[in-house]
Write a structure and sequence with these properties.
Layout: H1 7-13, H2 23-31, E1 40-46, E2 51-62, E3 67-74, H3 83-97, E4 103-109, H4 113-122, E5 125-136, E6 139-149, H5 150-156
Parallel strand pairs: 3-4
Antiparallel strand pairs: 1-2, 2-3, 4-6, 5-6
Helix pairs in contact: 3-4
Length: 168
């Protein structure tokens, strides 16, 4: 997928590109996803064009705690379209409504305020900061840990009224 070959997408997700994966390697990696039992990797498709514009993932599934992590990556040019927010809303809803999760968490880097705002729209709440969590091109970058809980989701359905806070 083009987002994995793009330097800006790599920066926003904190993915250090070691040059090891070309398009064939990425295809093989995706083929191996169905063998994984602790994650769900889905394509994000722009329904207006039919183009794959990214991926959304529930990973690090912890059945004992009914929790997992979330991540999303979009191709450049699709930022600001609202499609990432909607894809986040759909997959988080699936996690709570179909998989029975209690908690979904993520980390977002300080240099990606657009993503943080999208997560807040869905109802993710900032829990704390991992200081200097990423070394990117010689600069240390903080990451904010965010989460959403099932009771919050079922209260607002992924349409949080107050960004960054669970609805009261």
């Amino acid at each position: 997928m083009p987002m994995f070959l793009d330097s800006e997408a790599s920066r926003l997700t904190g993915s250090h590109d070691d040059g090891a994966l070309d398009e064939g390697g990425i295809g093989a990696w995706y083929d191996s996803r169905q063998e994984q039992d602790d994650r769900l990797d889905l394509a994000v498709v722009d329904l207006a064009t039919g183009n794959v514009i990214g991926e959304a993932v529930l990973n690090e599934w912890d059945p004992g705690n009914e929790s997992c992590s979330f991540r999303i990556c979009l191709v450049p040019g699709s930022y600001g379209s609202g499609l990432g927010t909607e894809a986040t809303r759909l997959l988080v809803g699936y996690g709570f409504e179909r998989l029975g999760l209690h908690r979904i968490s993520l980390e977002v880097y300080a240099f990606n305020p657009r993503a943080r705002r999208a997560y807040e729209k869905v109802g993710f709440v900032a829990e704390g900061v991992l200081r200097d969590a990423l070394l990117w091109e010689g600069e240390r970058v903080d990451a904010t840990v965010m989460s959403i809980l099932a009771p919050e989701w079922f209260q607002h359905g992924g349409r949080s009224e107050k960004p960054g806070h669970a609805s009261a």
